[in-house]
Design goal:
- The structure is a single chain.
- By secondary structure, this protein is α/β, with parallel strands linked by helices.
- It has two domains: about 220 residues, TIM Barrel (Alpha-Beta Barrel); about 80 residues, no CATH class.
- Helices cover about 35% and strands about 15% of the residues.
- The protein is built from twelve helices and 14 strands.
- The strands form three sheets. Strands 1-2-3-4-5-6-8-9 form an eight-stranded parallel barrel, surrounded by seven helices. It has a three-stranded antiparallel β-sheet with strand order 7-11-10, with no helix packed on it.
- Helix 3 links the parallel strand 2 and strand 3.
- It is globular, with a radius of gyration of 19 Å.
Length: about 350
């Protein structure tokens, strides 16, 4: 029988397991979000800067696949204002159960989202931002550590930041950054989290929309093969570092992994997505809908990479994570003896 870990997070989000799959822009489409939610986690659609028509289709596809709750992830900070308004309109009109936001905290957006009937998850990287999100009415705060893959606002290790955030606010807290196993889930719970938010471990899942090249690189890699850099920054606001797997562009940069600005990098197309050029030094990661030189693209990966050694269904990954976490917690409880 599959164990169930009941926490403030599962109660708030209405899911059996305290595991949120990250709304990774591009890879986290309906197949992955629906698979996670159907398996008892909380799936997020990664719809950052996507056309409203695509968002509408992806929401409908999740609902066709499962009746479990899910959410949509957007990054207001990196989205043109009118596009953001159009994206929000689609989500609110579709009555999505939850919205997840990242980077800067906008209290007014939290209020609007709550008024639209959706729960709010907000990913932050500092105690003040966590407190601001909680005061503004967020339902869940996701705490990002510097170990995370993709865009990283964090400057501190998760183990340093998480306990302080958990002490500072009284709403459910999810830990994010380098968590890719049951042991990581158990450790996060022990540090004060009510659940976890995982990207890399699901990026290589069967249902992920990541290209097979990216998935194979992930299952073959280890934590020492990631690097934090602002080298991949075209099509994104400056000073927004990412954690990626090392590739030829990282190797060519040598020690100059920082100090890059999107306006100062050459515009060279290295791929294509249905007529849209994919630029060298861009923030696009390889997707199933792309062709081109995938090795030179941003191969996002957190420091939890390496826990998965094969491409397999997201439900299996989630089940193993919860089972291992429950076993770890039972062992920990056995160590506690009455005084």
């Amino acid at each position: 029988m599959q164990p169930q870990l009941t926490t403030k997070l599962t109660e708030r989000l209405g899911c059996p397991h305290p595991v949120i799959s990250a709304g990774m822009g591009g890879p986290a489409r309906s197949a992955l979000a629906a698979a996670i939610s159907a398996a008892g986690g909380f799936g997020l659609l990664g719809m950052v800067r996507e056309p409203p028509a695509l968002i509408e289709r992806e929401i409908a596809a999740v609902r066709a696949a499962t009746d479990r709750p899910f959410g949509v992830n957007l990054i207001p900070f990196a989205t043109p204002p009118q596009m953001l308004e159009d994206e929000l309109a689609v989500c609110f009109n579709a009555r999505v159960p939850a919205m997840c936001y990242f980077w800067e905290v906008y209290p007014g957006l939290i209020e609007r989202t709550r008024k639209a009937g959706a729960k709010v998850l907000y990913q932050v990287a500092s105690v003040p931002d966590a407190e601001l999100a909680a005061r503004a009415g967020a339902d869940v705060v996701i705490v990002q550590g510097i170990e995370a893959g993709g865009h990283v606002k964090a400057t501190q290790p998760l183990a340093s930041l998480l306990p302080r955030v958990a002490d500072a606010i009284d709403i459910p807290v999810a830990a994010s950054g380098g968590i890719a196993s049951g042991a990581g889930l158990a450790a996060a719970l022990a540090m004060g989290a009510d659940g976890v938010h995982c990207g890399t471990v699901f990026l290589s899942a069967t249902e992920s929309f990541a290209h097979d090249y990216h998935k194979q690189r992930l299952v073959a890699a280890g934590p020492d093969e990631t690097v934090l850099t602002d080298l991949f920054c075209i099509n994104w606001p400056p000073h927004a570092p990412v954690r990626v797997l090392r590739n030829s562009l990282v190797a060519a940069a040598g020690e100059k992994l920082w100090g890059h600005h999107p306006d100062n990098l050459p515009r060279v197309a290295i791929g294509d997505e249905e007529g849209r050029p994919i630029m060298k030094f861009g923030t696009d990661s390889p997707l199933q809908s792309m062709t081109g030189d995938f090795e030179q693209m941003a191969l996002y990966a957190g420091q939890g990479v390496g826990s998965e050694r094969s491409v397999r269904p997201a439900a299996d990954i989630l089940a193993d994570m919860v089972r291992a976490a429950a076993a770890s917690l039972r062992r920990t409880q056995q160590l506690v003896q009455p005084a």
